[in-house]
């Protein structure tokens, strides 16, 4: 997080993390389509060969100010493919909150498990753990025939303590609820912090 004193904005970073094809990109595309254009920036896709990272600013005006500053949420996705581990770790660095997007298909359980554990490893590398920053879980693709119930997935993946949301992101279902959940968690977390934030003047 950092403060831009010129614009009086509190800049916060939220990363959508998860296995390949779990719906991270779809979440950002749906949010971008559904949010008032006056409250969000352009959807930017950064590509290197087959590596794609999506990014845009999300200005949450109705949240009110924190210490006289307007919260500005920057949303990112990580590339899903495991062979872009360096990019995934780089995007995750500096996150103030994480949305873990799981694929609810029973066939993707191991992929979810591997991605969840790898994310935990990265957070430890950054001197954090799953309790150090807000994390919410979205169990996406609840419309597929072999979808596992969210409660079952949460238990098997050992995601205790993380708020979770059911979703079918391709239809927009659960997308904004997930966004509201992580936004609320991040802002509450920031308000509780006594540590100084990095400032940009």
* Share of β-strand residues: 25-35%
Given as residue ranges, the uncertain stretches (5+ residues, pLDDT < 50) are 194-201
**Cα distance, first to last residue?**
14 Å
Please estimate the helix content: 25-40%
**CATH level 3 topology:** Rossmann fold
What's the pLDDT, averaged over the residues?
A: 83
Assembly form of the protein? single chain
Structural class: alpha/beta
Give the full name of the CATH homologous superfamily.
P-loop containing nucleotide triphosphate hydrolases
Secondary-structure element series: EEHEEEHEHEHEHE
Number of strands: 9
| CATH architectural grouping | 3-Layer(aba) Sandwich
Count the domains. Answer: 1
Number of helices: 5
What Rg is obtained from the alpha carbons, in whole angstroms?
Answer: 16 Å
CATH class: Alpha Beta
Explain what the structure shows:
The chain is an alpha/beta fold. The protein has a single domain (11-194), classed as P-loop containing nucleotide triphosphate hydrolases (Rossmann fold), CATH 3.40.50.300. The protein has 5 helices and 9 strands, in the order ββαβββαβαβαβαβ. Strands 1, 2, 3, 4, 5, 6, 7, 8 and 9 form a 9-stranded mixed β-sheet that branches. A hairpin with a 2-residue loop joins β3 (44-48) and β4. The chain is globular.
């Amino acid at each position: 997080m950092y403060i831009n004193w010129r614009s009086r904005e509190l800049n916060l970073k939220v990363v959508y993390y998860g296995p390949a094809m779990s719906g991270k990109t779809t979440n950002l595309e749906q949010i971008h389509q559904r949010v008032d254009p006056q409250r969000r920036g352009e959807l930017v896709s950064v590509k290197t060969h087959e590596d794609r990272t999506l990014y845009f600013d999300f200005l949450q005006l109705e949240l009110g100010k924190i210490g006289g500053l307007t919260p500005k949420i920057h949303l990112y996705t990580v590339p899903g493919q495991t062979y872009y581990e360096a990019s995934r770790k780089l995007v995750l660095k500096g996150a103030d909150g994480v949305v873990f997007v799981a694929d609810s298909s029973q066939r993707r359980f191991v992929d979810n498990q591997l991605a969840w554990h790898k994310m935990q490893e990265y957070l430890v590398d950054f001197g954090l753990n799953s309790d150090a920053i807000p994390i919410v879980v979205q169990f996406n693709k609840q419309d597929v025939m072999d979808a596992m119930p969210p409660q079952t997935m949460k238990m098997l993946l050992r995601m205790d303590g993380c708020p979770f949301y059911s979703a079918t992101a391709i239809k927009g279902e659960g997308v904004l609820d997930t966004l509201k959940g992580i936004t609320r968690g991040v802002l509450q977390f920031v308000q509780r912090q006594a540590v100084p934030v990095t400032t940009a003047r």
